[in-house]
Amino acid sequence: MAESQYEVDLGNLMAFDPHHQFVSPPSSREEVVKEAIEQGTKLVQAIADALFSLPSTEDLDGPIVKLPAPTTKLPRAKPLPKPRPPTKWELFAEKKGIQKRKKEKLVFDEQTGTWKRRHGYDRVNDDNDIPIIEAKSTDEPGTDPFAERRKEKKSKVEKQEKNRLQNLKQAAKAGALPSHVQLAATALPITGSQAMPKKVSKDELQNVAGMAAISTASGGKFDKKLPGEKPPKHEKKYRKFLPAVEGSGMGALEKQQTEKVLNQLISKNSHEILNVEKAVNMYNVKREKKQRKQGGQLSTSSKLKANKKSFKKSSKKGSSNKGKSK
Prior knowledge:
single chain
């Protein structure tokens, strides 16, 4: 089949053959796979030929080409996002004709006589840099102006957070929730349609308190019990640890645990740990060596005794011969 019959879209790096047909229907899956690999190889070759026909620029990594605009419209996996509804401030700014302008990052601070940041650390008009606040005629005597200023700032932050949540509710109703909030929307009651968490019952609170008590190192042994507190209900078995302080029965407990672990290991892997035939042969060899050693000791002791007796007899004969000669 000629290459001109292929339709190549270099913008999407895609090629297809609109006139391709099976000569005979495939009888097995292997034939379908084989035919697909052959046609795919031809299409990839057609894309490569079209790429090398484009004007290119040389680079250290090789020739670089600029792809043209795609000609094939591919379907989206998801629908287009809906536009976000305007906030209250955006509606007010549009009504009054207020245009958003970019502000400078640095601002001149008249108190210190230096340029400082508009926001963030060491910013302009920082409350910590104000040593004196002039009292007003409407201020009540005895009030702390610094505390009032902190209270006012806190109320502004709370109001801003309230407005932000209201904007999120409106965006959720319109179906245009921001992408960074979509995952958290399942847990946060923004729209008001989600059920609030149920009230915890008394029994559940008691179980939680019991579990928290046994989470200490002593297992809740030395914790103070609340009035009416019940012991926790355990469905599973928990490990028992040795006491942290050494006592009279500490060594016996450790020895018992060690022997238990060793017995389990030996019984489980006895065929790998102990070779019975080798052990019997080694025992027989040691036994024979011991018997030979004992036999050698007996023979040497008997020889010494015989030599001692012969020495005594010879000494007696020598003394008797001396007497006769006199």
